[in-house]
Amino acid sequence: MEKNTHKLVILVGSVREGRFGPVVSSWVAEQAVAHGGFEVDVVDLAEVDLPLALPAAPPKFAGVDYPRPAGMAGLTQALEGADAFLIVTPEYNHSYPASLKAAIDWHFTQWTAKPVAFVSYGGAAGGRHAVLHLENVLTELHAVTIRDGLAFPNYFTAWTDGRPDDPQAAGYAKTMLDQLSWWAGALKHARAAEPYPA
């Protein structure tokens, strides 16, 4: 029986100079493609116009008339068409980058009733503080966060040639992607059967 595929958007959250995010997201995208359950689209927030000043009316109420910058159109389209999300984030001062907060806040319905998984990296905590904050924010937007993510502590000494040194990392990634695929399918069917009561 052929496996159904879901549209997965991988968000590269860091826009900092010299960032490690593209290395992590490249490896994660490779795992997602190998998994076979996804059509993978990597969206790098460093390439998106993300102003911090927001319009007066929130996107929840403005809907399709929400005045986003033209340079954000690709991001909005990707989020709108996604069945699932995977956010790659570093940890800055026990939280996630402003670039991710801006990307989230410029949108609302694009996240609703869709699953989100997390891959984080950082110092001793491996970015877990950032993920805890993201889970809280995305729950407010009616997204469904996946419990089993990936965290890479001390990434600066734990990766070689673009790959994690931990031999179990690929197995952890498969577990995360299996859960993400299950939720993507379940929520896609649910949204098609009946509009989500947001």
UniProtKB/TrEMBL annotation:
It comes from the Bacteria. SUPFAM superfamilies: Flavoproteins. InterPro entries: Flavoprotein-like_sf (IPR029039), FMN_Rdtase-like_dom (IPR005025), NAD(P)H-dep_reductase (IPR050712). Residues 7-155 form the NADPH-dependent FMN reductase-like domain. It comes from Streptomyces yunnanensis. Gene3D superfamilies: 3.40.50.360. This is NAD(P)H-dependent oxidoreductase.
